[in-house]
Amino acid sequence: MENVVEVKNLTHYYGNKLVFEDFNFEIKSGRIFGLLGKNGTGKTTTINILNGFLKPTSGQCLMFGENSYKLPPQTKARVGFLIEGHIQYSFMSIKQIEKFYSAFYPKWKKEPYYELMAKLEVTQDQKLSKMSCGQRSQVALGLILAQDPDLLILDDYSMGLDAGYRRLFLDYLIEYAKAESKTIFITSHIIQDLENFLDDCLIIDYRSVLVAMPIKEFQKTFKQYKFHVPNPEFRLSKNNIIKNYEILKDKASVYTFSERPELEAYLNSLSINNSTVEEVPMTLEDAFIGITGKY
Amino acid sequence: MYSALLYKEWLKIRWAFFGMALLSLLALTYIALNLAYYVEFMTAKGFWGNVILLGFPFFSEIEYIPLLSGIVIAIVQFSPEMNLSRLKLTLHLPVEENKLLMQMISFGFMLLILLFVLITLMLWIIVGIYLPVEVVIFVLNSLFPWLMVGLTAYFLTAAIIIEPVWARRLILVPFTLGFLDLFFNAVNPHAQLTVFFIFSGLLTSTLILFSGYHFKRGIK
């Protein structure tokens, strides 16, 4: 499969503050790729670099083989971009904004846009500035779908949306992406919504990559175990086996990619009674919090 | 594509344009009524003698309207682009970025030219009805630097609004004020100075490319 996006040895600083260092990932054609991380870990920075709105300190980003720093117009036409907060030209009406964008994109299809607009209780002459956040999100999505891009970059699509609009957004997106074999690069702070949506995930923390793998593999291999600790002063540490842990009074939770026998052998070496070890089922959000921590 | 971009710019600018056109019309009507009164009161010969010898400013009501028009049109055109970084949407359009910015600014420029041509023609007609051609030339010569102030103010205000680096904005503001002051102080400029005004005024239109470059590269 062709790489639609390639990020190579990317390092970025804001002044003296390091955002990430030697960051590498790639997005294959036709995959839905989620960039997940806590606030301030560099998700929007990555998207800004990918779209050429920020020059990285070092490293390279390629989109369709072109340097994202100098994307030619024909490559930009292949990329649909949703700005965080569903930003659009709020001084335009539903009809005006469709007319405006249609002139720029040769593959423009107005049907999906007006199909989405028909679901909203708005008139075609209604200005975007007079619409709710949820309605504006549908306008932004409809415009991207009408553009018919090969790659969709969606920066925090869920910002400000209630559960209904989030579901509507993803339902439309998944139907479109699967039918048209589109590549999607998405970030969101509502992890649970992405559980059955993503193909691949990249989970980042401050300055480092924690996970880069297909989402199913992550959910299959990343486990949470609970057990009793000998005393409240008992301490664990992160290592190759324990990726993260929490201790509350006499109960501990550990997060690991290791198989249960390997974990039990390790805990045994710490004088933990293996009979108290039990696996706890996790949602994607639990796993995300497990790997990144609560703080 | 160009017409679509102009359509977007027109949607932002139109009310400000009509507002400034109305203001110009009111100022010109006031000048026309005043002129009719003075000519009646002093006779045309006596009045234009005062204008030529004493520089009687009978049309000064129009002096700051081009400046105001330039600033207002730049604000209504470029502030919505900077609000919530909407300029990203524009720069993501499949058109070369400098070309986009120059097309945007050329549209504002053309509207200002249209407004200024209307002001010039109307002032020409108003003055020409009562006073000889020498006075008309004197008036239009005096008007010219004010119109150039309006165009230059438009270019510089646009560059200041688009500029994401506050330090550069702080440099651009006194530069703009100094530049405009130079134009304002030129009454009846001679030919060389006129060429300088046109050349330097139009040159400031390129400043938006530097501001756009800083925005595009995320320089803060």
Query: So what's the overall shape of chain A?
Result: elongated
- Strand count of chain A: 14
Strand content of chain A: 25-35%
CATH superfamily of the largest domain in chain A: P-loop containing nucleotide triphosphate hydrolases
Give the overall shape of chain B, derived from the CA principal axes. elongated
What value does the Rg of chain B take, in angstroms?
Answer: 19 Å
- How many helices of chain B in DSSP terms? 9
Strand runs of chain B, count: 0
Mean pLDDT of chain A: 91
**Unreliable segments of chain A (pLDDT under 50, ≥5 consecutive)?**
none
> In CATH terms, what is the architecture of the largest domain in chain A?
3-Layer(aba) Sandwich
Most extensive interface:
A-B, 28 and 23 residues
How would you classify the quaternary structure? heterodimer
What is the rounded Rg of chain A?
A: 22 Å
Strand content of chain B: under 5%
How far apart the termini of chain B lie comes to 31 Å
Structural class of chain A: alpha/beta
Sequence of secondary-structure elements of chain A: EEEHEEHEHHHEHEEEHEEEHEH
What does this structure look like?
The complex is a heterodimer of chains A (295) and B (220). Chain A is α/β, with parallel strands linked by helices. Chain A folds into two domains: 3-214, P-loop containing nucleotide triphosphate hydrolases (Rossmann fold); 222-292. Chain A has nine helices and 14 strands. Chain A has helices at 43-50, 73-76, 94-102, 110-119, 133-147, 163-180, 215-221, 260-269, 284-292, and strands at residues 3-14, 17-28, 32-37, 58-63, 66-67, 79-82, 151-154, 183-187, 200-205, 208-214, 223-228, 244-248, 251-256, 278-280. Chain A has a six-stranded mixed sheet, sandwiched between helices. A four-stranded antiparallel sheet of chain A has the order 2-1-4-5, covered by helices on one side. In chain A, strands 12-13-11-14 form a four-stranded antiparallel sheet. In chain A, helix 3 (94-102) runs parallel beside helix 5 (133-147) and helix 5 packs parallel to helix 6 (163-180). Chain A is elongated. The model of chain A has no long low-confidence stretch (mean pLDDT 91). Chain B has 220 residues and is an all-alpha fold. Chain B has one domain. Chain B is 83% helix and 0% strand. Chain B contains nine helices and no strands. In chain B, helix 5 packs antiparallel against helix 9. The radius of gyration of chain B is 19 Å and the shape is elongated. The two termini of chain B are 31 Å apart. The model of chain B has no long low-confidence stretch (mean pLDDT 90). Chains A and B meet through helix 2 and helix 3 of A and helix 1 and helix 4 of B.
